[in-house]
Amino acid sequence: MASDKEPTVIKKYANRRLYHTGTSSYVTLEDLAGLVRKGEDFVVYDAKSGEDITRSVLAQIIFDEESKDGQNLLPITFLRQLIRFYGDSMQALVPRYLEFSMDNLTQDQNKIREQMGKAFGSGAMDALQAQTRANMQMFTEAFRLFNPFAAAAAAKGRGEAPAQGENGELGDLKRELNEMRERLDKLAKDK
Asked: Of 61, 62, 63, 133, which sees the most CB atoms within 10 A?
């Protein structure tokens, strides 16, 4: 929800207090979470060094939200998979893919809200569940593409014997890599 107006500047002081320069008042992480929910952009700078620390403040907001009872959006398996991408050769692709996925999820969310508004009570839950299943399938497929070894592990878990040679595991990995390249090219063209 980026806008044309300049983002609000928040300064973080050594005493860990956050200062909203637009309202000339101190704010909390909860206040900043409220700004995000309203679609207002802000940047956070360390008051002493001038360093942009927006990413770490947003991560802290997510951490705080995840710590609340019933507020979990990030499944443990997702968090583990995300950690595995740090330092991996695929690390550079993950942020763009996650942005793309979140944009699509946001668009789907708006469609679901429209459908619920039109059909309040009649099939709204079915539409929501169907969309949720479709989104989960998309995330599962995406992570399968980013981790070519997951397919081999899944086959092993099903008790299938791993194939050997050029037509076996190596061939499977090459095919998966080519599929991933094709999908990434398609995503790039769709933008």
From this structure: 61
d(CA 185, CA 152): 24
The CA R_g of the chain, rounded to the nearest whole Å, is 21
* Surface-to-core class of residue 118, CB atoms within 10 Å of its CB (0-12 exposed, 13-18 middle, 19+ buried): exposed
- For residue range 93-126, list pLDDT tens digits in order: 889 989 998 888 888 887 877 777 776 655 656 7
- Whether the predicted pLDDT of 29 surpasses 90: yes
Q: Which residues of 11-40 are buried (b: 16+ CB within 10 A; e: fewer)?
A: bbeeeeebbbeeeeeebeeeebbebeeeee
Q: What is the pLDDT of residue 136?
A: 76
Total-model pTM:
0.56
Contact 55, 19 (CB under 8 A): no
